């Protein structure tokens, strides 16, 4: 028995989650939903995914593009056990009613508020709390990246406080409408930023504040972390904890990975689909303990790091696998992490 | 009597310091030094600055470009009381010997190490210590920007510790050789960065650490500051302290200054020469006290913020003015700050 998964919204995240789900042996894609024809919809069909229109009025558009659709979202929801909602943000409430009507479980992305589902998910930090749930939100790329390291460090040494600056990519690589081309934008200007509270939706006890700035780049986010730990430890202790985590990749500037651009080139050379880096990229040679405080840099591939988390969330919510570590292992193995 | 100032190196900083010196009524430019002819050298002559070649072997080059030179650096040094050295970094030791030979005082920029002069300068923090000195180093743009706010906050409330992320412009606007076009580069990768210790060359008692990242932009640096203060205070207290400082400009995103790009446009609209922003640009609406810690953003125009500091350093070293506040006032008035 394989779990029947629908993908509503086949953009940056949706298409990646679809492929990651298809790569697992305990789940399958029963259909993907798009509002409009596009090169992505065509490639999806070539891959064998059943294509559904978001609504009846969209079907004509697909016909004009000579694309056959299997039906509408409504019809797809009758086939699926769970839907991964990767539609643009702020449509959550509306779709939630629809999913409830069809008795389908649903996973949203970080663009939606915690309140929509009352539960925010990270594979390593709270898998067991997701077991059997109807609705879950996989937190954003930045929050996922922060939770991965903070959970690891908190478990090993206790995190007294974390002060993080997030240098955000301003637009995704395929986005031709967004700027800035040449500027730095404090965003939000009101401090601290909302990213800290978002981490608290999963790790409520951690004292974390964040400041975020949009930068003129498309490739990855970069985090500058300053953390006070409860237990005294060395730089080697930190390396040893982080290198054991399933979704943290330690790199070194000595290997000529000195920037987000080289980290992305590295993912491509690894043969990753779409050149995706699913793991946090932590610079080993940036890890420093100074006056008892920890410092390091990590890069987060905004298009990719939440993808394996979505796969694990499916397994937890459908109770295919009770143990988080086993699901993570399974997901990672199927993807080749 | 006006002080006779030479400018050695007429690039990004040198040309700006020359104009700022020329704008004062107690000092004058006796000559500027270039190694090669360029549009900048031609404009300098149009402005009435006497042009000197760095060495005899460079004179031929100027002749070929039909530019008349008044002599060489050696000859200029016999005319000058003080030289502002804005040559590319790491030539300090060599030139120092030359200046000593000619009995000329000298000011270097932040590209040189503190050790070259044994004294690092900031107008507000240590003007009086520069009085009568032969050699002084005006700290870098980033350090100048940090010292301005830290000195102000330390004087008013005491700084317990400062944790700062520096998002650096990767290249100046006229630099066509430097990247990255699309990446974030932790630089230096080794943490904390050298900017903290550089602040300590002026404010040795302040606990400051810094992390620095090169970003794909040319306009300004952006600092994300997290500061613990000794005295309890409100956001209004912070605003009131910063707005009284002579080289801090408070801006607000409500006035549509939301980024470094708009901060630079603001400087242009103010009618500033070359569109220069000599002051720290501090976002008033970013100033926040959260759990007893202070947070804010500031932008630093890397081409400009050290310019008024160079003028004040001249006045201190030649003892034209004994009082720092009076010199700052004079410099600011002449520039129109």
UniProtKB/TrEMBL annotation, chains A, B:
Keywords: Cytoplasm, Glycolysis, NAD, NADP, Oxidoreductase. D-glyceraldehyde 3-phosphate binds at residues 140-142, 195-196. InterPro entries: DapB_N, GlycerAld/Erythrose_P_DH, GlycerAld_3-P_DH_AS, GlycerAld_3-P_DH_cat, GlycerAld_3-P_DH_NAD(P)-bd, Glyceraldehyde-3-P_DH_2_arc, NAD(P)-bd_dom_sf. GO terms for molecular function: 4-hydroxy-tetrahydrodipicolinate reductase; glyceraldehyde-3-phosphate dehydrogenase (NAD+) (phosphorylating) activity; glyceraldehyde-3-phosphate dehydrogenase (NADP+) (phosphorylating) activity; NAD binding; NADP binding. Its EC number is 1.2.1.59. One of its GO terms (biological process) is lysine biosynthetic process via diaminopimelate. The active site is at 141 (nucleophile). GO terms for cellular component: cytoplasm. Pathway: Carbohydrate degradation; glycolysis; pyruvate from D-glyceraldehyde 3-phosphate: step 1/5. It is an enzyme of class 1 (oxidoreductase). It catalyses: D-glyceraldehyde 3-phosphate + phosphate + NAD(+) = (2R)-3-phospho-glyceroyl phosphate + NADH + H(+); D-glyceraldehyde 3-phosphate + phosphate + NADP(+) = (2R)-3-phospho-glyceroyl phosphate + NADPH + H(+). Coiled coil: none annotated. NAD(+) binds at residues 12-13, 111, 169, 302. Signal peptide: none annotated. It is found in: Cytoplasm. Residues 3-141 form the Glyceraldehyde 3-phosphate dehydrogenase NAD(P) binding domain. The keyword NADP applies. Homotetramer. Belongs to the glyceraldehyde-3-phosphate dehydrogenase family. NCBIfam families: GAPDH-II_archae, PRK04207.1. HAMAP family: G3P_dehdrog_arch (MF_00559). This is Glyceraldehyde-3-phosphate dehydrogenase. It comes from Candidatus Methanoperedens nitratireducens.
């Amino acid at each position: 028995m394989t779990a029947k998964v629908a993908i509503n919204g086949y953009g940056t995240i949706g298409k990646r989650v679809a492929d990651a789900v298809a790569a697992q042996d305990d789940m399958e894609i029963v259909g993907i939903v798009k509002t409009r024809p596009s090169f992505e919809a065509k490639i999806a069909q070539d891959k064998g995914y059943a294509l559904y229109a978001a609504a009846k009025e969209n079907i004509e558009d697909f016909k004009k593009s000579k694309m056959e659709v299997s039906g509408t979202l409504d019809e797809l929801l009758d086939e699926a056990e769970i839907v991964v909602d990767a539609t643009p943000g702020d449509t959550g409430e509306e779709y939630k009613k629809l999913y409830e009507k069809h008795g389908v479980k649903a996973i949203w992305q970080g663009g939606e508020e915690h309140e929509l589902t009352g539960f925010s998910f990270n594979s390593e930090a709270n898998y067991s709390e997701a077991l059997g749930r109807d609705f879950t939100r996989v937190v954003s790329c930045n929050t996922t990246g922060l939770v991965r390291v903070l959970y690891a460090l908190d478990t090993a040494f206790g995190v007294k406080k974390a002060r993080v600056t997030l240098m955000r990519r301003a637009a995704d690589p395929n986005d031709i409408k967004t700027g800035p081309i040449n500027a730095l934008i404090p965003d939000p200007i009101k401090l601290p930023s909302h990213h800290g509270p978002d981490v608290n939706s999963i790790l409520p006890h951690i004292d974390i504040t964040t400041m975020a700035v949009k930068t003129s780049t498309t490739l990855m986010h970069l985090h500058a972390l300053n953390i006070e730990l409860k237990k005294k430890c060395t730089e080697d202790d930190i390396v040893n904890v982080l290198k054991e985590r399933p979704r943290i990749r330690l790199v070194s500037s000595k290997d000529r990975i000195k920037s987000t651009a080289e980290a992305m080139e590295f993912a491509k050379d690894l043969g990753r689909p779409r050149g995706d880096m699913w793991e946090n990229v932590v610079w080993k040679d940036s890890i420093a303990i100074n006056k008892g405080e920890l410092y390091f840099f990590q890069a987060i591939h905004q298009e990719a790091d939440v993808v394996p988390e979505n796969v694990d969330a499916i397994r937890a919510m459908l109770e295919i696998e009770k143990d988080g570590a086993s699901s993570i292992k399974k997901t990672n193995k199927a993807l080749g992490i």
